[in-house]
Design a protein that fits this description.
homodimer, alpha+beta, Arc Repressor Mutant, subunit A, 3-stranded antiparallel sheet, 5 helices, 3 strands, DNA-binding
Chain lengths: 104, 104
Amino acid sequence: MIENNEKYEQLDEETLFIVSQTFKALSDPTRIRILHLLGEKECNVSEIADELSLMQSTVSHQLRFLKNLRLVKFRRAGTTLFYSIDDEHVMTLLNQSIHHARHD
Amino acid sequence: MIENNEKYEQLDEETLFIVSQTFKALSDPTRIRILHLLGEKECNVSEIADELSLMQSTVSHQLRFLKNLRLVKFRRAGTTLFYSIDDEHVMTLLNQSIHHARHD
DNA sequence: TTATTATATGAATATATGCTCATATATGTT
DNA sequence: AACATATATGAGCATATATTCATATAATAA
C-alpha cells in the first residue's frame, strides 16, 4: 500500500504573528509611502506630512505604529524628531515588491 | 547658497495599489497558513480545512480572495478542486519573511 | 431523476483599521 | 514665567475585514 506519510509542519504561533504583523505594516498605502520616503532620506514629521500631503496627526499615528514594530527609529534635535528606517530587511521586502509590481 | 535640489519621486498610484494589495494578502494569519500549506503540496479545499482546522466556508472565502489576486490557481478533478500556488514571487516574499522571523 | 459529495456564495455580525479633530506634552526662546 | 513650535495622543466615526451560518451550485453516482 502506497501512502504519503510525510506530516506537514505547521507554522508556529509566534512566527505566524511576526510575519502577519510585518506584512500588515506594509499593507497600507500611507505606511508604504512613509517608508518609501524614509528609504530616500531621513525626515522629520512635518517634512513627511508636507511631502506626502498628509495631516500631521495621521503621520504621527502611523509613525507610532511603525516605531512599535521597530521598522523606524528617530533622533531628536530640539523639538524636531528626525525619523529614519530601522529595519533594512523589511525595506528589502518592500523594494522587491515595488520592483515586481512595476515589471509585470 | 547650498541647497538640496533633488526632488523626491513619489510612488505612482498603480504601484502603490498593487504593492499594498499584495502585502494585504500576506497580512492575515489564515491566508499565510493556507499559502504556506500550498507551498508544500497541492491540496483540495477539504484537505486545507482539515489540515488547518478551519471551516470549509472560511477556506473557500480566503481561496477566492487569493485566486482574485492570482496568488493561487486550481484544477478540477470531478467535484474536487485542487489548489496550488500561482505566484512564486509572492511565495518568495513570504518565505523570506518566515525565515527572517525565525532567525532574529 | 434523486441522492451524494465537494465547493462556493450571500447575509449577518463582530472586530479591526485609518483618519480627523481637539488637545496634551515637550523643548526651546524671550 | 509666558509663548511658540513640533510632535504625540485619545476619542469618535466611518469603513474594511474575517468568520460563521445557511443555502446554493456543480459534478458524479445509483
